[in-house]
Amino acid sequence: MINFWFTRIQANKAAMKAMLVNRVGDFFILLSIFTILVVTGSLEYDVVFSLSPSIINLSFYSFGYEFYIIDFICLTLFLGAMGKSAQLGLHT
């Protein structure tokens, strides 16, 4: 992630792409953590997992569709992990 090949244009472009993809991963990780905190009121594993049966049916409406909170949390965690490790779908 460190761009020390500042004289090589292609290396510089690759480092900029890697930083951008990493920031996308950061955004999704933070979005999922914030959603977990708002829904459960805690970030501790035992609290979150003990409350998970009660939040399964919680949903929200956006863009004319109904989304379940638990699916949204799982999707944002998955996208964050893909962005942080540059896996297929969020690689350059």
- Uncertain runs are none
Biggest sheet strand line-up: 1-2
Strand content: 5-15%
Task: Sum up the overall morphology in one term.
Answer: elongated
The N- and C-terminal alpha carbons lie at a distance of: 13 Å
Number of strands: 2
What string, H for helix and E for strand, traces the elements in order?
Answer: HHEEH
Main beta sheet: 2 strands, antiparallel
Radius of gyration: 17 Å
Structural class by secondary-structure content: mainly alpha
Note the total helix count: 3
Helix amount: 55-70%
Please tell me the overall pLDDT.
85
Could you explain the architecture of this structure?
The chain has 92 residues and is mainly alpha-helical. The protein has a domain at 27-55 and 66-92. Helices cover 65% and strands 9% of the residues. The protein contains three helices and two strands; from the N terminus they run H-H-E-E-H. The chain has helices at 9-40, 45-55, 69-85, and strands spanning 59-62, 65-68. It has a two-stranded antiparallel ribbon with strand order 1-2. A hairpin with a 2-residue loop joins strand 1 and strand 2. Helix 1 (9-40) packs antiparallel against helix 3. The longest helix has 32 residues, at 9-40. The protein is elongated and about 55 Å long. The two termini are 13 Å apart.
